[in-house]
Amino acid sequence: MHEFEKYRAPSGKDVVALVQKHPFALIVSSAPGEAPVATHAPVVIPHDAHPVDTFVGTTLFGHIARSNPQWRGIDESVPVLLVFGGPHGYISPTSYEQDPSVPTWDYAAVHLTARVEVLEGADDCMHIVRETVRASEDLMPVRWDDTTSVPTFEQIIGGVVGFRLHIIAEKAVFKVSQDKSDDVRARVARDARERGDAYGDLASLVDSRGRLVCPVTGDA
Question: N or C: which end of the chain has fewer CB within 10 A?
């Protein structure tokens, strides 16, 4: 992903917060001579990891269905790309109230490059699945306790392949009208709210010039 200088993330903490709040990632891998393949899957921060300003040097967890052939084609010596999408939305020139104008798209996104450990063992996969549940429940207003469901997990865990994803590089773009005047940005945020923010809370990002202002619960 190309990082535009004027659309860089406000801080490393904002990059971490976006991934934590939007963990449904695109896992992209490629084999020599073949087109890249991708799977949409949750990728989460383990409870004992505490990235603050960067993911580089940390490890994330992910898993996909064993029936998905992508995992068999992963070469652990070849990095994969993890794509996380945050709030985004079309910006109509009607928000600018000036002519001539051109439309654009505001968005926030994070790309992480990772070395992969493929984990097929039931214990490893169970650990990753439960970590995924924990991280996801951290985002819920009321937590669900998975304790009584562990026997059910054990019955179906054979259908899962897990990943440890060791992050070696990160890029981020927070393009949220920060190159516009305060009055234009206020109208962009207002219009995003009025249309319902179908693709996440873009209005809050625009209001804050790209800063993730909503706190994230949990340990990570």
Answer: N
